[in-house]
Design a protein that fits this description.
Helix content: 25-40%
Radius of gyration: 16 Å
Number of helices: 3
Order of helices and strands: EHHEEHEE
Distance between the termini: 8 Å
Strand order of the largest sheet: 1-2-3-5-4
Number of strands: 5
Shape: globular
Length: 167
């Protein structure tokens, strides 16, 4: 079983729950375990919220108001990628340390040691949560273009009555 979808969304807060609901609906219909679905939906929400907040370069007159979300449920794994058209990770805004070395895009950016964030902080914990909820995380810049890319994957567990379970 293989399912994939891609969205081109406006950089507005209302787009975050839309992407989350689509992912949850897809995984529920396919028969993915609800706990795994929930973890991935929280990680997706955090990545989308980052794209909405940081994904445009309005300082340089760029009115890019969109970002993309692509999800792949393929066999035993789900991979999600969120890409924006903002400035990406720069020396002023470095990418956090990579959890794994990517085999393709995104382009890794060196980063300093992570800064501890309080559990009740309103900002700064999104990438931390993504790392905790996913099995593999890749964070970097789009190769050859402006923008950041956050991709993550997780091994799927299936309900016993899963209609589209991988074989």
């Amino acid at each position: 079983m293989s399912i994939w979808w891609s969205l081109h969304l406006r950089r507005e807060a209302a787009s975050v729950p839309l992407a989350r609901r689509l992912l949850l609906g897809t995984m529920e219909t396919a028969g993915v375990d609800p706990d795994v679905s929930y973890d991935l939906s929280v990680a997706l929400s955090e990545a989308c919220a980052n794209a909405v907040e940081h994904g445009g370069d309005t300082a340089h007159g760029d009115c890019s108001q969109a970002y993309s979300v692509t999800a792949y449920l393929d066999g035993e794994k789900c991979r999600i990628e969120v890409a924006d058209s903002g400035p990406g990770f720069t020396p002023e805004r470095p990418a956090p340390p990579l959890a794994a070395v990517p085999t393709a895009a995104p382009v890794p950016v060196p980063a300093p040691a992570p800064v501890p964030v309080s559990v009740d902080a309103e900002q700064g914990r999104g990438l931390f949560l993504i790392r905790e909820l996913a099995d593999h995380v890749h964070i970097g810049n789009k190769p050859g273009r402006a923008g950041a890319v956050v991709s993550f994957d997780k091994i799927l567990k299936w309900r016993k009555d899963a209609p589209l379970m991988a074989v």
